[in-house]
Design a protein that fits this description.
This protein has 167 residues and is mainly alpha-helical. The chain has six helices and two strands, in the order H-H-H-H-E-E-H-H. Strands 1-2 form a two-stranded antiparallel ribbon. Helix 1 crosses helix 5. The two termini are 21 Å apart.
Length: 167
């Protein structure tokens, strides 16, 4: 077997204790997955202590920030890509209607109630407080640079599920 002429370094196995000098060889999937899991778990744990879920927060925000009052179907279509399954968002809408945090008008459009808006504001504060903890020691410039890198890597990998480039 001939020696490889490829001068690229081998990807190192995932190592939480990797030194700065060896980080460039670390697998992005490991590190991005670690951050996703840690941040999501911390947010969902904090929300669970006040009997709210992250998908409920998504729905409240979606209804609040839609250009017009959205229908149930529009909320489901808009948020299902973030959800843990195709039925989760519809169930969340039902939960929020039951809690009287949402109301449905005769035209089937969804609106936040006063209680729903108060809950959304409380959840925004909770999420902002958590963001401050997670971003401690990370400047806005570093954060933007990290997101630009992740956005580029997602595009390179074909974030729509299709491989952008085949090795």
């Amino acid at each position: 077997m001939e020696p490889s002429t490829d001068n690229r370094p081998d990807q190192a196995p995932a190592d939480p204790a990797a030194t700065d000098e060896t980080l460039a060889a670390q697998p992005i999937g490991y590190w991005s997955g670690l951050v996703h899991t840690a941040v999501t778990r911390r947010l969902r744990d904090a929300m669970a202590r006040i009997d709210v879920t992250q998908p409920q927060y998504w729905v409240l925000n979606h209804v609040k920030h839609s250009p017009g009052a959205p229908s149930r179907q529009e909320v489901v279509e808009g948020l299902t890509p973030l959800a843990d399954g195709p039925h989760e968002i519809g169930r969340v809408v039902d939960q929020l209607l039951h809690r009287a945090w949402l109301r449905r008008e005769a035209d089937q459009r969804l609106h936040l109630t006063d209680d729903g808006e108060a809950a959304r504001v409380r959840l925004r504060e909770l999420a902002s407080d958590l963001r401050a903890v997670v971003h401690e020691g990370v400047s806005d410039e570093e954060y933007v640079a990290a997101l630009k890198v992740l956005r580029r890597m997602a595009a390179n990998a074909g974030s729509d599920g299709e491989s952008a480039r085949t090795p």
